[in-house]
Structure prediction request, 223 residues.
Amino acid sequence: MRTTTGTMRRVTVCARVVVLSAVLTALPALAARSGGPPRPAPVTAGWQLPDPAVPRVARHWPVGTRPLVLRGWEPPATPYGPGHRGVDLAADGGSPVRAVAAGRVSFAGPVAGRGVVSVEVTGTGEPPLRTTYAPVEAAVRKGDEVAAGELLGTVEPTGPHCTACLHWGLLRGEVYLNPLSLLPPWLLNAGPSRLLPVLDVPLPGRAQVSPARRAVPWRPPPP
Prediction:
């Protein structure tokens, strides 16, 4: 009896294992027929990834030659979620703010206690790309046509967003994009030009040997 009972228990366990394996094997097929498990709703387009169609039309940094990026682009997961919709560039109060590309000023004035200038970038489709700069004491007015590098205003000494910085943003319609994507590689990666000394070259208009090397009398070559 004990042997028979033990055998029956083993048979029962084996049968359960076979049934469980069959169920697990059939699950993928059942899921495929029913369309699979429900997928999460897609995140609003354009909020996580930069628009690959953003042309690199910038020909100038908004401030300085190669400013320090104090805070980078942090796209929010949802239109109203937390994040950083632009980049913060180090800039002292009174620093000139320039248009990164040619365009038309679409707004210039105060918003929530800080000066803002917005420029629609020429030749960037419909709706056009729009760059924003804040806090800025504007030197332009709505409707002005500006060229790349043209003065838009100066950085206000203080602002509610950050201190000693310029907030630079980029939008297409109501979708925020990474403004650094406007910069071509030569402008994004290159630092300011520096003149390096050239040794053994006389200064213009002065017949003398560079002090970097001691002058020695000329001697004819050996025969």
Q: What stands out?
A: The CA atoms of residues 72 and 87 lie 5 Å apart.
